[in-house]
Amino acid sequence: MNNGAQTTSRRNFLKSSFAMGALVLSCPLKTLADVTGNILPDIVEGDLGIFLKISSANIITIGSPIPDMGQGVSTAVPMLLADELDADWDQVKIEKLKPYLTMIKGRVEEKNIRQNAGGSQGIREVWLAMREAGAIARKQLLMAASKKMNVGLDELYTEKSHVIHKTDGRKIAYGDLIEEAAKIDIGDEIPPLKTADQFHIIGQEIKNEISPDIVRGVPTFGIDMKIDNMRYAMIKRSPYSEGSVQDFNRAEIENMPGIDHVTVFNRIPEDHTKARIMSAGVAIIGDSFWNVKKAYDAVDVVWNKGPNAHKSNEWLDEQFDILEKQGGHEVLYESGDVDQAFSDADQIFEATYENPYWAHVCMEPHGCIADIRDDGADIIVSHQTTARVARITHELTDIDLKNINVKMARMGTGLGRKSHRDFVYEAVLLSKEINKPVKVYWTREDEIEQDYFNPKARHILKAGLDQNGNISGMTYTLLCANNNTIASEAFPAHAIENFRASFAVAEGLQTGPWRGPMENLAGFTNQSFLDEIAVTTGQDPFEFKRNLLSGKGQAQYDTWDNLPVNHDRLLGVLELAAEKANWQVNAKKASGYGRGIACHFTFGGYAAWVVDVKIDPDGTLHILKAVGAIDCGIAVNKLGVKAQMEGGALDGFSAALNQSVDFKDGMAVSNNYDQYQMARIGELEPEIEVHFVENDHHPTGAGEIGLPPAIPALLNAIYDASGIRIRKLPIADQLKK
Predict the structure, then answer these.
(1) Which of 174, 200, 195, 175 is nearest to 83 (CA)?
(2) Are 393 and 406 contacting, i.e. CB atoms less than 8 angstroms apart?
(3) What pLDDT digit, counting tens, does each position of 516-561 carry?
(4) In angstroms, rounded to a whole number, what is the distance separating the alpha carbons of residues 368 and 439?
(5) pLDDT for the residue 485
(6) What is the bridge-based pairing of β-strands 244-248 and 301-304?
(7) Edge-to-edge strand list for the sheet holding 687-692
(8) Residue range 230-247, pLDDT digits in tens
(9) CB 640 within 8 A of CB 602
(10) Helix spans in 305-401 (H)
């Protein structure tokens, strides 16, 4: 794309948009393209959809490109554009940006702007693109006002959706400038963006734009959606992780009232050596949810249990025992001379930690509406990845991408699970089979049984200590139920001169990303282990970790996003949390009270928690207070970041208290809240504070970092209060006497 084509096309787009009674702009995304290597978008074609629209009534509508699962991006991302535009936030409306996709080498991909949620990357990747769009629009409006007032640009400034003359105070609303602004070409140079001290919307606490609708029960989630003439479907899926349908009472189900179609799914792919996309099962389609649910409850399937029927939690523990004895694990990271460090050590300290499978338990069970026709397809779904939904539809139907309409509904949480393909596959295949629109419903039991779990693991840590209790060498051996090695280089790996991380896998249930994927395990184990060393050697846990971090600078962290860890920033959150919690003031006011501290880095963010607890003589745990500190660079919406930190801590506490997926005969048998227990309000009502490290670093996401340090801070507080060291999660009844 050459510069001339950009200019010409942009001008044409603006003209046609103004004909609809508004100034409509899309974004050049030059910086995004520089970062991602994407082809520069043709802003000038306007096919980004409504990226920014200013109406004659001075209403500003901003398109939000990233799916929202509760992380608040539907508010935070438009704030970026609104700030650069100097918009009046009270007059801003937000719409979900329509999917903007393209075919690249025969595969459906996002075009230019990020449209998926995951890995705490949303804000990070649109940070410059959205602001550039606002800066361009503001420049056009200023130039239009300059012409209309017959004054120089340097005599004008913008504020709350108006252009204002600096001297005489004359002001023109943006809405009164759109016709003239639409004729202006500012060229290809992007206007200078604001510096952090010039922000007036970014960095504030802005209420979530959709909260009123959620509170009023307005249909916003995928499970709320309906289309005309749709059929209802439920699927009795194999509870065995690799099972298949042997037989079932087909005649009985087909003759039940309201049931008009019954079909059998095989596992996709059928090759069990490849990762599962969709489970085998019996699909039931009918005229109402109620009739289909009755048939779903009545279906009696004889299952072929498949190759994993011998697997269970006990089997997996035995595999870990074998792997531990065998040794010779794959070395993932190594620095210095670990063996020599152990040989020279005055003391060797060892501990083993274990965690169970954790499930996502999204508040909104999965579902999807698909209407597959000869001339096109409509998909409505709560999903984290727009391109993946369209790609599935295209691949399963051969329908041209331009005729695939994907509507992304708000997600009732996602946490990584709603990035998977199974529920979209099911709806598309069923609609294609019956040639009618179909809505597939999942139950809570479906959602847990078919989950991609956070993996069960065993962590073996060993440290050599010098005569002053300092760590001279350390090893971390991870025995895990999947082959994700993301946590191998977590702190303190790069802060210790002699360090070795090794790994071995014994696969059980299917696994996938869950909040702070794998880093939740690294936070639990490493921060617990450091606390144990500090306490054992008579050192203050906060001072011990501070000394370990001091002067270590920055190190490359070779995980999936390849972001370096800055030990100074990690130290910053540790010190801020300690300061705000008055760490130096002994919280042990009486017997049974305790305090713990932990910090962690992941997905570009840094966080620390100080947790205060009280434990009754009978072992009843009370989490009294949690004081957190976060460094996520510039916090775009501080209210949203606080919510992420609070949610991460509470989710972590809940997982640590009672959650464990019971895995027997190759299937998850704890498949609802009676067996997989979320913490009750009475168990989990701490006072929570969140504090920010203020800086002007490029913003990162906050969705992952809140949880990993929360669990060890809680466990360290429990030890401080009771002397009981929790090395195996969940806590369950380990405190009961």
Answers:
(1) 200
(2) yes
(3) 888 899 999 999 999 999 999 999 999 999 999 999 999 987 776 7
(4) 6
(5) 74
(6) antiparallel
(7) 593-602, 605-615, 621-631, 687-692
(8) 999 999 999 998 999 999
(9) no
(10) 313-326, 338-344, 386-397
Distance CA 462, CA 533 (A): 10
User: What CA–CA distance (Å, rounded) separates 725 from 535?
Assistant: 11
Kindly report the pTM of this predicted structure: 0.92
Which residue's entry shows tokens 């109406």? 55
Q: Distance between CA atoms of 378 and 388, rounded to whole angstroms?
A: 14
Q: Please state, in angstroms and rounded to a whole number, the distance separating the CA atoms of residues 443 and 288.
A: 15
Give the type of residue at 204: Q
Token pair recorded at residue 305: 């249990």
Give every CB contact of residue 128 below 8 A, 6+ residues apart in sequence: 31, 32, 35, 193
Q: Are 584 and 627 in contact (CB under 8 A)?
A: no
364 Cβ contact partners less than 8 Å away, ≥ 6 residues apart:
221, 222, 223, 382, 411, 412, 413
Go through 142-154 and write b for each residue having 16 or more CB atoms within 10 A of its CB, e for each that does not.
bbbbbeebebeee
- Contact between 353 and 528 (Cβ < 8 Å): yes
How far from chain centre, in Å, is Cα 587? 34
Token reading at 719: 């030890």
**pLDDT tens-place string over residues 368-411:** 999 999 999 999 999 999 999 999 999 999 999 999 999 999 99
Please report which residue ranges of 368-498 form alpha helices under DSSP H.
386-397, 422-434, 444-449
Q: Tokens standing for 150? A: 């017959």
Helix segments in 457-605, DSSP class H: 519-536, 541-549, 567-580
- Strand pairing report for 438-441 and 231-237: parallel
Q: 410 in helix, strand or coil?
A: strand
Place of tokens 């399937």: 301
Residue in the structure block whose two tokens are 């008579």: 538
Please give the single-letter amino acid code of residue 171: K
Helix (H) or strand (E) holding 304: strand 301-304
- Strand, coil or helix: what is 216? helix
